[in-house]
Design goal:
Elements (H helix, E strand, L loop, with lengths): L1 E3 L5 H14 L3 E6 L4 H8 L8 H4 L3 E5 H8 L8 H18 L1 E7 L1 H5 L5 H17 L3 E7 L15 H4 L2 E10 L2 E11 L9 E6 L2 E6 L6 H7 L3
Parallel strand pairs: 1-5, 1-6, 2-3, 2-4, 4-5
Antiparallel strand pairs: 6-7, 7-8, 8-9
Helix pairs in contact: 5-7
The structure holds adenosine-5'-triphosphate (ATP) and magnesium ion.
């Protein structure tokens, strides 16, 4: 799960994850619910690490969640148990058919707003995660949070964090009038990893991490990347 505040770089990080996979020959898919695919691609193509050929060649497959809902007859405000199962089946079928090994759901928050019970949200994420990992697919579920401070939840509904195998938190820290982006790996099952906060920059080459102790050097880099 990638949990982050607005504009913290969630979509860019997720798209770079797919691009790196596509470059090594993996089939990738991105389900977009927060912005239409046309707009998503329009924004992301400004980054040099992204190449539109990956879309044209079918290495990265972008799906609008709204279109998927229409296909499934799910263009409604609230999902019940059957709707949730139909959605899981559709996503799993697409992953299976294309042989997707890297998947992004952007965002799972938007999707889960339609599921009214906490238990059903939990079941949805658990079942989806289990089925996708059985297929050998690594999934980034993007979660929108309003605050990434120490006291805040690491997910939108407070239930997703226990189900996810890993949690990456993205947010902002204000330093001398600048909003600096940070990234922190809170958990990653089965892996020894740093839990330190890292500052991040969205550069043409991709998301760059700098250990927090070196944040003093940010202003130089920011001017170098022209942001
Ligand atoms: N070409 C670019 N180079 C560097 N930074 C950019 C570029 N284009 C946009 N940005 C920055 O990236 C931010 C958006 O990043 P991104 O869409 O990955 O964030 P997000 O967390 O997915 O946002 P949202 O909450 O809106 O979904 C913009 O607000 C802007 O600050
Ligand atoms: Mg986004």
């Amino acid at each position: 799960m990638v949990s982050g505040t607005c504009g913290s770089g969630k979509t860019t990080l997720a798209m770079e994850f797919l691009v790196r996979g596509a470059l090594s020959g993996e089939a990738c898919a991105h389900f977009t619910a927060t912005e239409p695919s046309v707009k998503l691609l329009e924004n992301i193509r400004q980054f040099a690490f992204f190449n539109m050929n990956m879309i044209d060649d079918g290495l990265i497959n972008v799906f609008d969640m709204d279109v998927l809902y229409s296909w499934l007859g799910l263009d409604k405000a609230t999902f019940d148990l059957d709707d949730v199962h139909a959605l899981i089946k559709a996503i799993v079928d697409i992953v299976n058919t294309i042989g997707v090994t890297r998947l992004v759901v952007d965002s799972v928050t938007t999707l889960c707003y339609k599921i009214k019970s906490e238990q059903l949200i939990r079941d949805f994420l658990f079942t989806l995660g289990k089925k996708l990992s059985t297929l050998g697919c690594t999934t980034l579920l993007i979660s929108e949070i309003t605050s990434a401070s120490e006291n805040a939840h690491w997910s939108s509904f407070g239930v997703e964090e226990a189900i996810a195998d890993g949690i990456i938190v993205m947010g902002d820290v204000e330093r001398m009038g600048h909003l600096l982006r940070f990234l922190q790996v809170v958990k990653m099952r089965g892996t020894a990893h740093s839990r330190a906060k890292h500052s991040i920059e969205l550069t043409p080459l991709g998301v760059m991490l700098t250990p927090m102790l070196k944040w003093g050097a940010m202003s130089d880099k920011q001017s170098r990347w022209g942001s």
